[in-house]
Amino acid sequence: SSVPSPASSEVSAFSKASSSGAFENADRTGHHVNVINVINLNRSVGKWTVFGEIWNQQGFTPIGTFAQTTADTAVAYLVTNTLQLDMGANFGLDRDAPQQQYYLGVSKRF
């Protein structure tokens, strides 16, 4: 990532992350492992941030495995230091992922 100079308000970042956990099976008879991977690239200019990412989820259930992969994009606007508005879209890259999802959001820091 880059660090802005004192005269600049631009910041770019690249990140990747993985997480896993045990989730209850749909029939509530046990648990299975679920793994999530994310690769994210974002760019902030002033109060605006634009995001792009590839998201992947893999589940290992007693009846089989599944995987979902999406290409996601979003934009966020920092209204104040404690209030953010955002909107984005997720696009399925395989048959198990939802074809399209759109969202709007409001975040408030307390």
Explained architecture:
The protein is mainly β and 110 residues long. Helices cover 0% and strands 73% of the residues. The chain has strands at 10-24, 31-45, 48-61, 64-80, 83-92, 100-108. The radius of gyration is 17 Å and the shape is elongated. The chain starts with 9 loop residues before the first strand and ends with a strand.
- Counting helices, strands and paired strands, the structural category is mainly beta
Total DSSP helices: 0
Q: Spans of 5+ residues with little confidence (pLDDT < 50)?
A: 1-8
Helix content: under 10%
The largest beta-sheet arranges its strands as 1-2-3-4-5-6
What is the string of helix and strand elements?
EEEEEE
Look at the structure and give the mean pLDDT.
Answer: 89
- What gross morphology would you assign? elongated
Separation of the first and last Cα atoms: 28 Å
- Using DSSP, what is the number of strands? 6
Short account of what is shown:
Helices cover 0% and strands 73% of the residues.
Helix and strand arrangement:
Blueprint: E1 10-24, E2 31-45, E3 48-61, E4 64-80, E5 83-92, E6 100-108
Antiparallel strand pairs: 1-2, 2-3, 3-4, 4-5, 5-6
